[in-house]
Design a protein that fits this description.
alpha/beta; 9 helices; D-Maltodextrin-Binding Protein, domain 2; binds adenosine-5'-triphosphate; elongated; five-stranded mixed β-sheet; 213 residues; six-stranded mixed β-sheet; 33% helix; single chain; binds magnesium ion
Length: 213
């Protein structure tokens, strides 16, 4: 039985390589240089499928992939239905934060009771965060370049991932609130875990043993 693992290109793929190696899995090609969406490995029974980061939970949920690696941000937005999430891999670490244009009085805006316009790629996380604070928000869904929104008057604030803060700084934005710490997790299709237990469990054990603190 073939084991299919869903990964996204870029940081998740790169940071997953050592974990795959610990499970004796070495990709035959690098997705950055290959245009293939299905990548073989040194193990004839293991293949990788390369999908958008936000599509990983969907492939695993429907069993098109048995395993996947996805950010906590993506998993919260997806909802996690049908997914077993046994392991925090401690890779692709960053923070989900609220940011505003330098000089915008966020505290006053929040206290005032007025509605705050919030642009984000993460409506679920943003909605929950502001609901818990009792702040009324209008969520404006964007697919990228959130940093632009406050600068052109589309929003008062953004909810976005921040790692070094370099992008915020370059766009005259400041982080004003930390929402959650983000890292990537292993997700497993629940039916596949039962059906392919003998193949999957050793991979889970190898990953668990290779996670860096
Ligand atoms: P796409 O770029 O295809 O629109 P994406 O931005 O979600 O999708 P990536 O940039 O590869 O894809 O991010 C994948 C995951 O890595 C995110 O879901 C998040 O968990 C994490 N991540 C995003 N940005 C950073 C960052 N700056 N530093 C560390 N981890 C990050
Ligand atoms: Mg990205």
């Amino acid at each position: 039985m073939t084991l299919t693992i869903a990964l996204s290109k870029g940081r998740i793929f790169e940071e997953t390589l050592p974990l795959l190696a610990a499970a004796g899995i070495v990709p035959a090609e690098a997705p950055e240089s290959s245009r293939k969406l299905i990548i073989g490995t040194n193990r004839p029974d293991v293949q990788l499928v390369i999908v958008r980061a936000s599509d990983v939970p969907t492939y695993v949920q429907y069993g098109a992939a048995d395993l996947g690696i996805a950010g906590r941000d993506v998993l919260i937005e997806h909802g996690g239905a049908g997914l077993y999430q046994p392991l925090d891999l401690n890779i692709a670490k960053c923070k989900m934060m609220v940011a505003v244009e330098n000089g915008f009085d966020y505290e006053a805006a929040v206290k005032h009771g007025a509605r705050l316009k919030v642009a984000t790629k993460y409506p679920q996380i943003a909605r929950e965060h502001f609901a818990a604070k009792g702040v009324h928000v209008d969520i404006i869904k964007l697919y990228g370049s959130m940093e632009l929104a406050p600068l052109v008057g589309l929003a008062d604030a953004i909810v976005d991932l921040v790692s070094t803060g370099g992008t915020l700084k370059a766009n005259n934005l400041v982080a004003v609130e930390h929402i959650i710490d983000i890292s990537s997790r292993l997700v497993v299709n629940q039916a596949a875990l039962k059906l392919k237990y003998d193949t999957i469990q050793p991979v889970l054990d190898a990953f668990a043993g290779a996670v860096q603190p």
